[in-house]
Amino acid sequence: MPSVVTHKFRQNNADQFKEAFGEAAPTRMYMFIGGVKAWTNDASPPTPNDAVANTVYAHWRDMLSCKKVEASDVSYVIPRVNWTSGTLYTEYSDTNSTLFSNNFYAMVSDYHVYKCLFNNNGGLSTSTPSGTSSSIITTADGYKWKYMYTVSAADVLKYNTASYIPVKTLSANDGSNQWSVQQAAVNGSIDIVDVTAGGSTYNNYHTGTLDAVGNTTTVTLASGASAVNDLYNGSMFYTTGGTGSGQQKEVINYVGSTKVATLASAVLTGLDGTTTYSVAPKVVIQGDGTGATAIATMNTTSNTVYSMTVTAVGQDYSQANVVVSANGSSGVTATAYIAPKTGHGKDAVAELGGFNVMVNCKFDKDEGGKFTTSNDFRKIGLLRDPLLASGTAANGATYDQTTTFGLNAVSGTFVTDERVDGGTTTSNAYIVQANSSQIKVTSQDGLFIAGETVTGNTSLATANVLTHTIGELQKFSGDILYVENRSPISRAADQIEDVKLVIQF
Is 10 strand, coil or helix? Predict the structure, then answer.
């Protein structure tokens, strides 16, 4: 049976994951590192699989240490799209089923992020969008952009990568331009009307400056207006500048000899000899919302409709049709693009496809002795709600999950990464770090017992196990939600690893 998992489902999953960190009883999430054993090819780590043997057991055995992830360490992210001159950006359309797979937004060098609302009929973008206005931003190349938000300096440092940028929706007034944009957003607005066919014989187009205003319903057009009676009947009279700019009324009668046009109803404010105007095909936006209006721009060479300019965005539309008419002309088709439910800019996360969540965690030197600085690691993952070895819920900042053997009767020198074998139990493990009195091990196979002799597979050093101290967390408790295999990452006593994991929903 045909079906689809909608982008709203993906968004819901991302929301649930992120919100889990800030709930009244928050999920206790830890980022762990592990894997001292070399891959078959360290330059090309194997792809982890989701077998029970791995997800439930093996990753636990390879675990070295973990650090708690706080709510402030988690952010929605979207694929990074840098604005680049000469690029065709996909314009927003409420009917585009692949919108979130396309480059329909872009980030400029000052970390402003813009959504493309109109790409000038498939033209290349050559003018950098700029500004933080709540209104649509039109660039010299004919593109129309919507400013969405600016990535803060703090978020750039914490969540910005070559592949992803952070995105957020504000829940309170922080005084930013983004908040202004959110407040200005209009539910179900129509910000763009896109001409799909220009029609033909639209020769009843005229622009000029009013010669005179007769009364509330008549205007005298400029001397260059047509001498043909009724030519402009059914067209729209638009005031484009000067006194009374921004009004539109239908022409119901036109006398060519006097240039007098009679309008369908009274103009809203007074006009005078400074008022500029256009007479163009009538554009009517029909739908289940209210208030959207647009005017037509003509190609006077071909007598076709070239584009539409929205003069009022309206509100509450979920569907709309555009009807274009003019006396003796026909053939124009146009599509009204309906904004997201809450309006462009209201919810940057949902509008830009924030289906991914980044978890950022810094491993600062040895983290108080909990993280080794004398070995590398090859696994990074997320562990949810582990228990302490005692069985109580783990809620500390960091934990050491290696097993420590206290030694005596040491002969030779154990080395890191080598396998150590038990002489009695035939158990084995891999050394994380070693000194003359103890070794820390991971990836343990089998159970060592006190008193048995252990031998280093490479160094051939030997010792007796005097004490045996397990890791701080109860092995196999909680849930491992995510694992990445990487090439070896070396650690040092003066080093900080800034790890960014992106969970894609």
Answer: helix
